């Protein structure tokens, strides 16, 4: 039995399913039963954390867990049950567009009076709220582009070439210091946050976990390649205007130059990526596999559904004057205000 040493520590359980998964990874008991999964709420803390633990084995794993668990058949069996529960809820709850053209058209329209998280942070957000937002988003941004890279072997022709080109930019164009995950770590440093991979897993809400799990779910299944492309389109098309607002929020609150730079970089890069994704990735995919149009649409719609849930959770907490985190940020990572 060989154990990982460099991965993050396993987090605290949030219910019987996640407790059983964590215990199994530690070698302290059996995995959860499929029957246990059936009783867990699809978007709840317990199932979303359990699913996140299973998916993370395909990224960096966890400290002191057996590396063989990545392809453990018993764990994969229960993961499949969790995925089916999650997917069934998404298919049932996601507001669907009538077609791909309508879904893309809506993504391209910026509302005159936006009410989302980036609008709130730009207009009235405080530094502590920006820190909470970055801590929760770190579960994705510290591995930015990795879930999307899984789709590359499942594409060919125009779609593969264009997807690889966009991913090359996400990975810094071959320069380690420009990898977007590295740039986000620099942003976190400016905000006085711990940049250790997985550091804020215990603090993140179920809504934040679900947005990351969606990417892994789509990326790990060839049959969901169209949905993954839809997810990627939703992220890239909406990123530029959202990043502009977040860059303004960082400047207004004096978050720091690296915090501003991360979002400034995405304003420029993703404005180009949006065109490539629409005209080359999606068009190239459907040129080869027309039947995947509905899956691409579902990927766009499911992404919007979960992002709306996450945004709603953040705004409800912040407007009530309370933290959006499950556990507070550590005292040693508290941001020290800059003296102007």
Provide a brief overview of the structure:
The protein has helices spanning 16-26, 34-38, 45-56, 73-93, 100-108, 117-123, 127-141, 146-149, 157-170, 180-190, 206-220, 225-253, 257-288, 293-319. The protein is built from 14 helices and no strands.
SSE diagram, text form:
Elements: H1 16-26, H2 34-38, H3 45-56, H4 73-93, H5 100-108, H6 117-123, H7 127-141, H8 146-149, H9 157-170, H10 180-190, H11 206-220, H12 225-253, H13 257-288, H14 293-319
Q: Which term fits the overall shape?
A: globular
The rounded Rg comes to 20 Å
From the helix content, strand content and strand pairing, which structural class follows? mainly alpha
Q: Show unreliable segments.
A: 331-340
**Mean of all residue-level pLDDT scores:** 93
Give the number of DSSP strands: 0
Strand residue content: under 5%
* Helix content, binned percent: 55-70%
Order of helices and strands: HHHHHHHHHHHHHH
Summarize the biggest pleated sheet. Answer: none
Count of helix runs:
14
Please report the distance between the alpha carbons of the first and last residues. Answer: 55 Å
Can you walk through the features of this model?
The protein has 340 residues and is mainly α. The chain starts with 15 loop residues before the first helix and ends in a 21-residue tail after the last helix. Helix 3 packs across helix 4 and helix 12 runs parallel beside helix 14. The radius of gyration is 20 Å and the shape is globular. The chain has 14 helices and no strands.
């Amino acid at each position: 039995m060989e154990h990982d040493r460099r991965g993050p520590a396993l987090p605290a359980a949030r219910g019987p399913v996640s407790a059983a998964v964590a215990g199994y990874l530690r070698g302290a008991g059996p995995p959860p039963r499929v029957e246990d999964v059936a009783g867990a709420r699809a978007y709840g803390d317990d199932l979303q954390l359990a699913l996140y633990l299973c998916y993370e084995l395909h990224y960096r794993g966890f400290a002191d867990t057996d590396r063989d668990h990545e392809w453990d058949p018993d764990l994969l069996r229960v993961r499949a049950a969790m995925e089916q529960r999650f997917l069934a809820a998404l298919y049932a709850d996601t507001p669907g567009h009538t077609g791909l053209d309508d879904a893309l058209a809506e993504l391209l329209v910026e509302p005159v009076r936006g009410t989302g998280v980036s609008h709130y942070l730009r207009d009235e957000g405080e530094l502590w709220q920006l820190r909470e937002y970055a801590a929760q988003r770190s579960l994705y941004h510290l591995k930015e582009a990795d879930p999307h890279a899984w789709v590359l072997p499942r594409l060919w022709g125009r779609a593969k070439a264009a997807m690889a080109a966009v991913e090359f930019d996400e990975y810094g164009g071959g320069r380690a210091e420009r990898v977007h995950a590295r740039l986000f770590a620099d942003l976190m440093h400016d905000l006085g946050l711990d940049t250790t991979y997985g550091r804020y897993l215990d603090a993140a809400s179920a809504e934040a976990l679900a947005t990351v799990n969606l990417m892994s779910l789509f990326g790990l299944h060839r049959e969901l390649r169209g949905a993954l492309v839809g997810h990627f389109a939703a992220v890239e098309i909406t990123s530029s205007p959202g990043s502009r607002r977040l860059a303004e929020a960082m400047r207004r609150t004096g978050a720091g130059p690296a915090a501003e730079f991360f979002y400034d970089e995405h304003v420029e890069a993703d404005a180009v990526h949006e065109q490539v994704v629409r005209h080359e990735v999606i068009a190239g995919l459907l040129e080869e596999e027309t039947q995947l149009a509905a899956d691409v649409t579902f990927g766009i719609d499911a992404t919007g559904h979960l992002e709306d849930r996450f945004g709603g959770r953040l705004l409800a907490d912040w407007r009530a004057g309370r933290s959006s985190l499950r556990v507070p940020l550590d005292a040693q990572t508290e941001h020290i205000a800059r003296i102007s």
